Amino acid sequence: MLYDGRKPVSVEWPTLAVAVAIYSGFGLLTWFYHQIPWWLVLPLGGYFVAWHGSLQHEAVHGHPTRSARFNEALVFPSLWLWLPFSLYRDSHLTHHNDVALTDPIEDPESTFIARTDWERRGTLARTGLWTLKTLAGRMLFGPICCFWRLAVDESRRLWRGTTGARRIWGWHAVSCALVLGWTWGVCGIPILEYILFFAYPGTALTMMRSFLEHQARENVGERTAIVESGPILSLMYLNNNLHTVHHLEPGTPWYRLPQRYRAMRSKILEHNGGYLVPGYRSIALRYLLWPKESPVHPLT
Q: Model-level pTM?
């Protein structure tokens, strides 16, 4: 693990500034929604929702203050509607057990399937899994697959009366009501249009970031990527595209990650086996319609 020797500050003002920018930009975009052409709303709406998802990621890791309650309150409105913050927090912290990265059983964010499960799947299911291994498939169909899996899993938890499940979804309903109360009740945006122009593309952009940030390798260090992206997407992802650095220093705030990467670039790339990608454009050119790997985990 790397560490730059700095003591954590009580308030991370750059992160608070990002929160102000997100809510202000989202508020203006939704307020003037009916005066803006759809082809401009779509990328901007997706950007703000994905950016908010990156802010939630910061809150999961204890930013921007030392108060977990304040951090969670800061990201309480669910702009993408579908995923309760507490479920995301718990699954993501489990994901940070690097020894289990990409394991289809132990890693809740794994995009692989165990070989035994693959052998039980039919032709249609296998085709779908291969499709999700392309960038186009992941962005177009990945969100709806995530929505469906979450709905199935959480319906079972609610039916069984799993401890805390009703509380989680009760609070999530409140967080969604805040968003829809503004977008639908105040701004007059139909719920379906909000999903199509904000929530769905925002989730898709988030899934673009995670498309190849992990690979299945025996060497744990080689499982996590570095994507050297430009400023627009790096800001949207709050530098989480420098994913190896984040996994080595999960407590480092987003605005310090580039400096940490530049200071030890050669050591970091040695650590991750040179798993370096020169931007998301190169990812699209190579994997838009071509699978980046097999859906079956090679070590299962």
A: 0.95
**Per-residue confidence (pLDDT) for residue 1, from 0 to 100:** 47
Q: How many domains does the chain have?
A: 1
Position 50 in a domain: yes
The rounded mean pLDDT for the chain is 96
Q: What is the DSSP string of 226-283?
A: EE---HHHHHHTTTTTSHHHHHH-TTS-GGGHHHHHHHTHHHHHHHTTT-EE--HHHH
pLDDT at site 300: 85
Three-state DSSP class for 219? coil
Residue 289 lies in a domain: no
User: What is the percent of the chain where pLDDT is above 70?
Assistant: 97
CA distances from 159 to 25, 85, 151 (A): 39, 21, 12
Question: Nearest-5° angle of CA 135, CA 300, CA 292?
Answer: 15
Cα four-point dihedral sign 71, 76, 81, 82: positive
Is 277 within a domain? no
Residue 161 in any domain: the answer is yes
User: Contact, 225 vs 237, CB < 8 A?
Assistant: no
Residue 93 structure tokens: 């912290």
> Which position has the token pair 């998802």?
53
In this predicted model, what pLDDT tens digit does every residue of 1-60 receive, in sequence order?
454 445 457 899 999 999 999 999 999 999 999 999 999 999 999 999 999 999 999 999
Task: Check residue 10 and give its pLDDT.
Answer: 87
Q: Which domain holds residue 198?
A: 13-216
**Percentages (nearest 5) of helix, strand, coil residues in the chain:** 65, 5, 35
